[in-house]
Here is the input.
Amino acid sequence: MPQGQIVILNGAPRSGKSSIAAVIQETFEGPWISLGVDVYASMIPARYRPGIGLRPGCERPDLEAFVPTFYAALYDSIAAHSRLGLNVVVDVGHHDDYTRPLNVLQDCARRLLDLPVLFVGVHCPLDVIMKRRSVPQSGREGQYVTGSVDQPAPHPVVQWQRAVHSPGLYDLNIDTSLQSPEACADAIRRQLERGMTYPTAFQKLAAERYEP
Here is the structure.
């Protein structure tokens, strides 16, 4: 059975990942299953949230022990979908800014090592992020930290911008302040049509040595 393609969109909250994922689901050929931080968070008990959506900067040290397991479960699910021939688009915000390094991204890369993965860096300047956060979003009232006169860019938002693209190793980079979700999805489509350059970003990440 042919393996399903995996596209992982990594970026800060409100960088535009979900909009791109929606376009991929609607316009790419074949069934595309959308997995990621929001889908996973909705399935775990409230006392363990935000789960894999834990913000950089040691937000909840009491929850950090669960993060590697949550991510492992998510990525094993992604792998299972691909091995069954289903395409998967994943929107996440990987970082390693916890009380100690958890090396989650490297472990996730190992879990998809034998599968076709396109790792996409979804970038967006801080000023555009703040404009998007100021616009109410249905169903997410109170979930996003917004700015104020004294602090136009709150510390948690700045931390996301700093931490989410480390180490910054991608197969493709896109900037959602310069391109629409449709244009970003088209760039991803063209990259998939061109074929991957080996070793891929995830293969390089999987080869990094660390102490689990």
In short: The radius of gyration is 17 Å.
